[in-house]
Design a protein that fits this description.
Layout (H helix, E strand, L loop, with lengths): L11 E4 L5 H12 L3 E6 L2 H13 L4 E5 L5 H15 L4 E4 L14 H29 L3 E6 L13 H21 L4 E8 L12 H9 L9 H12 L10 E4 L7
Parallel strand pairs: 1-2, 1-4, 2-3, 4-5, 5-6, 6-7
Length: 254
């Protein structure tokens, strides 16, 4: 038996929140694995620059504007990918707002904004991609970015962020159940603190506390999350659905 890298040649991936950080890292890894990749983001200029950078590496990518809070915006972006490549095989729901602070200080507007981007956006992505994959009957992969914050209380995460990430786990199971008969798998990735622009917003004391709370003694690297996404997108993960893949350095063992 030989083990080969997950090959995604001939497949099309749609990645939300792909202009920077984790979304860009996942998009880059999928493209490196051979997929055609649509990078989408609310920041049109930055996502265009991100796609240009991958294109210079020889990757087959496009950039599209997308506000995940708005279903019509999602439908336009998805239609743009279908117009270009005719199909979407891999859906990555990554777009998110990272939010901190005391639950006593969260305003109603802050709560609504975080839930709209993180949870409602994931719902739209799952449903639009799920309908497409169900209708084509060609199978597919939907991968949702959750977090350890949705599984375990932490002073480093706002309650609105944690609630949104917990909701993503429930959505993942619901869509996995609905789409299993169509050979569409739906799974979640649940990283802990990832070395990213969002993590660097924390002060030194918070970063130190997070690192000390991790048995492996370090933060998760973006390439490790991206590698997990490529795995779930590939043929080797065809019998995994409704699952949460933890990438937390041992902070939550089960």
């Amino acid at each position: 038996m030989t083990t080969e890298p997950a090959g995604l040649a001939g497949r099309t991936a749609f990645v939300t929140g792909a202009a920077q950080g984790l979304g860009y890292g996942i998009a880059s890894a999928l493209a490196e694995a051979g997929a055609r990749v649509a990078l989408t983001d609310v920041d049109e200029d930055r996502v265009r620059d991100a796609a240009d950078a991958l294109r210079r590496e020889g990757r087959d990518v496009i950039a599209l504007p997308l506000d995940v809070r708005i279903e019509a915006s999602f439908e336009r972006a998805f239609a743009g990918v279908l117009d270009r490549w005719g199909r979407v095989d891999v859906m990555i729901n990554n777009a998110a707002l990272t939010a901190h602070g005391s639950l006593w200080d969260i305003t109603s507007d802050e709560w609504d904004e975080v839930l709209a981007v993180n949870l409602r956006g994931c719902f739209f992505g799952c449903r639009i991609a799920g309908r497409h994959m169900r209708e084509t009957r060609a199978g597919g992969r939907i991968i949702n970015l959750s977090s350890i914050a949705g599984q375990q209380a932490s002073a480093a995460s706002g309650a609105h962020y944690a609630a949104s990430k917990a909701g993503i786990l429930a959505l993942t199971r619901a869509f996995a159940t609905e789409l299993a008969a169509y050979r569409v798998t739906v799974n979640a990735l649940a990283p802990s603190a990832v070395e990213s622009p969002a993590l660097r917003e924390l002060d030194a004391a918070q970063r130190e506390r997070l690192a000390l709370a991790t048995p492996l003694g370090r933060f998760c690297e973006m390439h490790e999350v991206a590698a997990a996404a490529v795995f779930l997108a590939g043929d080797g993960a065809g019998y995994i659905t409704g699952a949460t893949l933890d990438l937390n350095g041992g902070r939550l063992m089960r």
